Amino acid sequence: MAVSGSRVKTALFGFIVKRVSFLAVIALVVGACWLFVLPLPGQFRNTYISENALLPGQAQAYFRSSEWHYLRGYKEEVRRLSDKPASEVVESLSTILSEQGYYTDVYHHEPDKATVYGIFRAPRGDNTEAIVLVCPWTNGNGLFNFNGIAIGLALARYLTKWSVWSKSLIFVFPPDPHKSLREWVAAYHRSLPIQAGSIEGALVLDYPSDLSGFSAIDISYTGLNGQLPNLDLINTVVTIADFNSLPTFIHGGLDKLFNALPSFLNPLKSSAYFQLLSTLLSSVAAQVTSGLNRVAGCESFSGWRIDAITISAIPTSELSHDETVYGRIIEGTLRSINNLLEHFHQSFFFYLLLSPHHFVSIGTYLPAAMSIAGAFTLQGISKWISYIQNGSSRSSILKAFFVEAAILAFTFALLSFSLLFDSQLVAQMLPTFCACIIPTALYASPMSYALLNEIHGVALVLSGMALTALATLNFSLALVVGLISSPLMFLKPGINRMHAGILLLVLNPFFIFYFVGMFTNGYTYIINTFVSSWRDMQVWTWIIVMCLWLPLWEVSAFISMANVREEAKKEVK
Amino acid sequence: MRMLLFSWLVFAWVAVAATRSHTNNWAVIVCTSRFWFNYRHVANALSMYRTVKRLGIPDSQILLLLADDIACNPRNAFPGTVYNNADRALDLYGESVEVDYRGYDVTVENFIRLLTDRFDPDTPRSKRLLTDDRSNIFIYMTGHGGNEFLKFQDAEEISAHDIADAFAQMYEKRRYNEIFFMIDTCQANTMYSHFYSPNILAVGSSELDESSYSHHADIDIGVAVIDRFTYYNLEFLENVSRTSNLTLADLFNSYDSEEIASHPGIRTDLYQRDLSDVLITDFFGNVQEVEIDSSKPRGLLSLLNQQIKQAK
Amino acid sequence: MKWFAIIAALVGIRFLLFLYCKQLLAVLENNVAISTPLTSYQYLLEGLFYYSRNLEIYNGGIYHQSPILLYVMNLLDATGYIDLLSYMLWITLDVVSALALASMDDFRPLTAVIYLANPFTIASLLARSTLIFTSTAILMSLATAKRRRAVLAMTFLAVATHFSLYPAALLPPVMYMSVGSRLSLYSFAKTFFVFVAATSTCMALSYAIAGSWHFLKFYKVSLLFQELKPNIGIWWYFFVEMFDFFMPFFLSVFNLHVFIYSLPLTIRLRHDPLFAAVTVLGLHAMFKPYPSIGDISLYLSLLPLYSRIYTQLKYAWVALLALAYASILTPTFYHLWIVLGSGNANFFYAITLTYVIAMTTIISDTLWAVLRLQFDDGASSKQVIQT
Q1: Model confidence over B135-173: pLDDT tens digits?
Q2: Domain ranges of chain C
Q3: Chain A closest CA to B224's CA: distance in Å?
Q4: How far apart are CA C240 and CA C229, in angstroms?
Q5: How many CA atoms lie within 13 A of A421 on its CB side?
Q6: Interface touch A381/C317, C-beta < 8 Å
Q7: What integer pLDDT is reported at residue C361 of this predicted model?
Q8: A residues 228-267 closer than 8 Å to C (CB)
Q9: In the complex, which subunits touch C with 3 or more CB pairs below 8 angstroms?
């Protein structure tokens, strides 16, 4: 009664079907090379101030000569406190702030850790909005934030002399810019006894030296899990720095990358393309590792719709800009944020900076991650082609989903294990557990070629979907995870087990962490960082590794190591 | 005989009418922006307000529409003041400022009601434009505008057609003698392109696709304090006093589009008089035509006879 | 036996998730793709609060469902274990729906398994969306109509229409199915009379429970689109920025869209009125004012009844992938928009449109396939090749 069992075919469909795998490779190459095209002239845009109300640099900043004396006094005070116990530091800072006229309080995280914060209610404002200035005791690199605290105290005194504030000012002095600061922000939105309304913007002051001079400022802007502050905030700071003839860098500048390169590439360093590319890549790297290694401070504000950046001064002993220039930058930025009536909303929330004055917006850079995710989906579809074309039994696709569900449950169990137990134990046991799939595959009963392909197809399509969703939330993480795990899509059932084994080993997440750990602080440290960053800072990277990358690895290991049932090696029509 | 007298009466009336001019002056000054960064628009409007007051128009004949959120804005480093110059020599807001429509009352609806006098009977007189057919009206508008529209308070817009139709209603209701319409916004000249009623003179600060720029900023207030077009108008008007003989032609000739950084436009096709005959004080001041008659009072018929003799 | 085990496992998973994943349930209850203002369990509890204290239920602007539900929930509440009992009620209805589906397909277990294993169905159940009352009634109506049990079919359809207005569009196909071969004005009139009688009974019951005719307000909410909340439908984005002047026009056009396809589809698909009903349900999943993924899962679960058309489908995989992508991106973009504030409504609406595209593709593709099969009664073995 039915029309014959073969599928509807169209000529175009047939053409595409034979070449889906090839399309996947093309998509992968396009995605990998996309970022290298962006620094070419014409692909990026100049930054501009979108919000007319900001008016950066139009107000004269007076944090100069007369304030310099107060600043020196506070520097001496900080020098005196530099080796005192935390309790005395907290008490001194509290006293200083209250004497300046702030409503001061101390938030205790743990018995020995406390954050001092003070609120200056705007004399003519309505106390429903606030701007936060953070001066952590140690900065993101663990260095003592000497001048940052001194300038913070001097600014705290100075800013109360002005009556132009429409928003309240909050000065926060946490012991460190990561866990403690994030706990303070969470407590502010929940339970702190004194508050000042919603936070419109936050600036983290970072000047880790007692030297009077600094040569440039470095802006760190990436938040956790791919969130970014509004581009206008960064543009404001850069504009004000330009007015003060102060150079700006983004995310540590180019020194680190420049110095890491071999010397024969030196001539490249002066080219505009190379400089833009390095800043772009360091922005991507910062977004991937945000919350993991160096937490600059602005990350702690992610998740509450607060636009936050860290302004770090690069100290130098040469005659250059002095601390009051840094103070003026902060003051100018505060005046600009003060002009706002609403949250930052005019400018971009999705961007990548190629330099303090150039950026690309989401429409320009997103295709990189999307092609890679698309490559996964296309490759997954190519594995399904035989099923789609020949209409093999429907139950095999259900079996494929069942296997995928089992593997996802397994990796979820591994994830729970890693979060519940001590990281030393976890670091040792995880690679063993995840490698269990290989003997399972080797000793399981043989399965048909088509079924193995379908299992792989399901895993690849699901990974493609997950990477697509991830790319909209955290572009850089999707790009990096996608690129690193992409060779897994080329594994096939029945290939040479030796070759498959080598590829699987190299692409195993734990092996890669071990390899990276050899150059940094060690493999256990890396695992510990991932787990503790989830616990303390709610960074999702570990979840992504365990629930996106690892299941794909497991499935690829399974199908490449499994025994193939000989008679089922059909040709794909 | 009666026919002759009657025709002479008509002739006399026409003769008198031919020399008609205005007997009172009104000013409508509108600032359509709000928020701190539009300080300069409020300064523009208040400067014009000060000028017309100085030249004689009383508050009862000035309608000032401002959002009025600048002087007491917490961001104002000099609370209670509005300056139009970085030298801060003159505080425009300090004393005797009468704002008739403030805050959220500055709407398109209220502006058009004001022009056409369509109000509830219990609207206070200070909010109404009580002009008659011998009133010269100076209408000044400033804010953010575009091609044939003007933004009111960031929430609505008025189009060039709306204003043209309002003026047409005013003409039909005989609510003005002459109107001098001045507008300082971006693409301002498009706002007067649709007027079609007689006796309207219009000047705008910039052409289509041109922006109007601010003149300078005060570094302590932190915002721009005056717009270029208004600044150069004020510079000229400083030399005008109540008895000055300077004309509108002099004013318009003083415009230098390089200094103003845009091309001001003047529309005279609806205006009958020659610009070199129009005194500045005809619109900015409150000079009235008064006849002083020193001889003893006469009846109407003898006055008419005198007119007829003069006409012969 | 194997199938029985699978079905038992699926029901067991539902219980396990209820017992051990309370947080997941809370998240799903608040998800806009799953519970809408007309089907939300939270709103049902709110209405129950008013009802149990004899307060005016429909004035609060929160509860927009039938009073009969309140009566049932009140009975459950009286025992004190409302959480567990309500969940068991929902699971029971789920199983009844699965049975009804299987019965339409000669009791093939795979159809029931597909329904029970569909993630959309599970999510709808975990969120306790009250759409299940409507869905179960619709499926029972279709199942009984297929067996020519006219009275039962009309009664179930009346119940479904009472709970949510839109199953009224199923009247032509279900009437046609239940009348079967006895095509006469008399039989149509008889079935229509049963429908009217059943509807009146439901209305009378509601009146008795609610105490007044105010309960009719909840029909107004869906017809006049009074509750403006984002969902996976296409109405809300239009109506957010519509001038009041145009409201009546657009409301009529949008409402017309929901009902107007039903009769023509029934006439064209006279030979297979069940498929007309299925297609109408698919159109409802797109054009209803407050659709949810429960509507989509109802439509997708009915499609396995027509497994013979699978060979004729041209875009099945594209559409299913589009649907899968839309499902994964809906919570992502909602999070970006509402929680993080870096996205905006356009992101979310784009995904809604992806849902619509996927559903349109499936509906038109399946319709084409059915018509193709009707063309030669499947007699020819010619393949269909198109360039």
Answers
A1: 999 999 999 999 999 999 988 999 999 999 999 999 999
A2: 2-375
A3: 8
A4: 9
A5: 13
A6: yes
A7: 95
A8: 228
A9: A
**Sign, CA torsion B225/B227/B228/B229:** negative
Residue with tokens 């007189």, as numbered in its chain? B125
Grade residue C386 by pLDDT with cuts at 50, 70 and 90.
Answer: low
ipTM for the whole complex:
0.89
pLDDT at B18: 45
Please give the class, per CATH, of domain B22-289: alpha beta
Angle (nearest 5°) at CA A442 between A440 and A447: 95
Q: Which helix (H) or strand (E) holds B217?
A: strand B214-218
Q: Which two tokens stand for residue B163?
A: 């204003």
Task: Single out the residue of B227, B232, B182, B192 nearest to residue B39, CA to CA.
Answer: B227
Which of C311, C313, C386 shows the shortest C-beta gap to A2?
A: C311
Q: Taking CA atoms, what residue in C is nearest to A458?
A: C321
Q: Tell me how many helices (H) and strands (E) chain C has.
A: 19, 1
CB-based contacts of C11, cutoff 8 Å, min separation 6: C91, C94, C95, C116
- What are the DSSP calls for C37-100, one per residue? TTT-HHHHHHHHHHHHTT--STTSS---S-HHHHHHHHHHHHHT-HHHHHHHHHHHHHHHHHHH
What is the residue whose two structure tokens read 């034979």?
A18
Q: B72 catalytic, yes or no? A: no
Query: What pLDDT, in 10s, does the model give residues C252-274?
Result: 999 999 999 999 999 999 888 99
Looking only at the bridges linking them, the beta strands covering A45-46 and A358-361 are antiparallel
Q: What is the pLDDT of residues A522-557, one digit of tens each?
A: 888 999 999 999 988 899 999 999 999 999 999 999
Question: A133-165 pLDDT, tens per residue?
Answer: 999 999 988 899 999 999 999 999 999 999 999
The dihedral of CA A413, A418, A421, A425: what is its sign?
A: positive
User: How many C-beta neighbours within 10 Å does residue C78 have?
Assistant: 11
Question: At residue A270, does pLDDT exceed 80?
Answer: no
Contact C340 A3 (CB under 8 A): no
Query: What is the rounded distance in angstroms from the CA atom of residue A203 to the CA atom of residue A156?
Result: 13
| Chain A residues inside the 8 Å CB shell of C333 | 472
Mean pLDDT for the stretch of residues A510-530 = 89
Say if the Cβ atoms of A469 and C328 lie within 8 Å: yes
Give the residue extent of every domain in chain B.
22-289
Task: For residue A124, give the nearest of B37, B74, B221 by CB distance.
Answer: B74
CA closest to C308 among chain A residues: A2
What domains lie within chain A, and their CATH numbers? 11-38+364-568 (no CATH), 65-356 (3.40.630.10)
